[in-house]
């Protein structure tokens, strides 16, 4: 394993699902917006151009909400690991990581930290099967290489 190896991971299946759902949502809200015209039924109100624009806007905001789920990423190198989940981001040196976990039945992998916290890595999802397993293995190799460097330094002193 080279000292400069960079591992970049992002989920595959959820990205396809979210992009498809986002496009479908915009299309459906666009179709609904074009069908909004005239009186509301009892004649007390009527749909205006602003109502149509609002429906398209709701579709776009809903699509952006779906696309938040495409945000997760994990990057790691010899220095540490950077985890970006749906809302939060973390940059951790390998010194604070005890191990990389992907428990059976878990929806995604996680980092086991020395302070007994678990940091979920939503980018490594069980739905991606072999892609996620390969990603976890790559992270474990980087973590083990870091542990080996620490051991060499300890013996060299």
Automatic annotation (TrEMBL):
The regions listed as transmembrane in this protein's record are: 16-33, 53-70
Q: Which Pfam families match?
A: bPH_6
Q: What is this protein called?
A: Low molecular weight protein antigen 6 PH domain-containing protein
InterPro entries in the record, alphabetically? CFP-6_PH
Going by the entry's taxonomy, the superkingdom of the source organism is recorded as Bacteria
Domain Low molecular weight protein antigen 6 PH, chain residue ranges per copy: 71-141
Q: Which organism is it from?
A: Micromonospora jinlongensis
Q: Which UniProt keywords apply?
A: Membrane, Transmembrane, Transmembrane helix
């Amino acid at each position: 394993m080279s000292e400069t190896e960079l591992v970049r991971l992002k989920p595959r299946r959820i990205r396809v699902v979210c992009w498809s759902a986002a496009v479908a949502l915009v299309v459906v809200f666009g179709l609904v917006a074009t069908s909004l015209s005239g009186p509301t039924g009892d004649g007390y109100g009527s749909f205006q151009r602003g109502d149509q624009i609002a429906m398209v806007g709701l579709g776009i905001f809903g699509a952006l909400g779906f696309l938040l789920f495409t945000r997760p990423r994990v990057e790691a190198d010899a220095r540490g690991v950077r985890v970006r989940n749906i809302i939060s981001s973390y940059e951790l040196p390998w010194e604070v990581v005890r191990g990389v976990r992907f428990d059976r039945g878990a929806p995604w992998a996680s980092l086991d930290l020395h302070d007994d916290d678990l940091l979920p890595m939503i980018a490594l999802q069980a739905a991606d099967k072999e892609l996620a397993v390969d990603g976890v293995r790559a992270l474990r190799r980087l973590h083990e290489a870091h542990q080996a460097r620490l051991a060499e330094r300890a013996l060299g002193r």
